[in-house]
Amino acid sequence: MPAKSKKKTKAKTKSKAKTKAKTKTMTKNKAKKQKNKYTKSEIEQFKKRILAERERILKELGRIEESINAAAEDQNGSNQSYSNHLADLGTDYMEKEKNFYYASQEGHYLRSLDEALERIERGEYGFCLECGDLISKKRLDAVPSAKLCVPCKSNQEKQERGR
């Protein structure tokens, strides 16, 4: 019985070694197939997408600004048709804070889009700022202002969470 057990163990070890070798070969082939930079037409598509997203953000910031200005006018009493009840004032302040928060978030996103446009102009767009690898097209489609590849972004988020 022990002799059969040893043979099975050797067979499993050989099988695992073959699997590891295949995995290494597949990884090398993927690395060879992976691009080292995006074409001019791909960069141009990313640029159009970023500019369209930038335009959308600017419109949204304009809408938020109008909302903040309208709330300020209402608070001054020019259009006020209700009494100054504490609950109403609290709701008004909450809406005002929410608008400021949205404006801040959109402003940060706008800044990151502008930085992406600058990286396009410098010829650095699409490369991870951390490791220098090409950021995947799927990631750039999802987040056109991405500065980091998925593994580097994951590492950054883990460090920010303190893990």
| Quaternary structure annotation | single chain
Output the number of helix runs: 5
User: Biggest sheet, open or closed, and with what strands and sense?
Assistant: none
The SSE string, one letter per element, is: HHHHH
User: Measured on Cα atoms, how large is the radius of gyration?
Assistant: 27 Å
Shape: elongated
User: Average pLDDT, to the nearest integer?
Assistant: 79
Distance between the first and last residues' Cα: 48 Å
- The fraction of residues in strands falls at under 5%
Can you lay out the helices and strands and say which pair or pack?
Elements: H1 2-33, H2 40-76, H3 86-122, H4 137-142, H5 150-161
Helix pairs in contact: 2-3
Structure write-up:
This protein is mainly α and 163 residues long. The chain is 76% helix and 0% strand. It has 2 domains: 38-125; 126-163, no CATH class. It has helices at residues 2-33, 40-76, 86-122, 137-142, 150-161. Helix 2 (40-76) runs antiparallel to helix 3 (86-122). The protein is elongated, with a radius of gyration of 27 Å. The two termini are 48 Å apart.
Summed up, what is this model?
The protein has 2 domains: 88 residues; 38 residues, no CATH class. Helix content is 76%, strand content 0%.
Which properties best describe this structure?
0% strand, 76% helix, 2 domains, mainly alpha, 163 residues, 5 helices
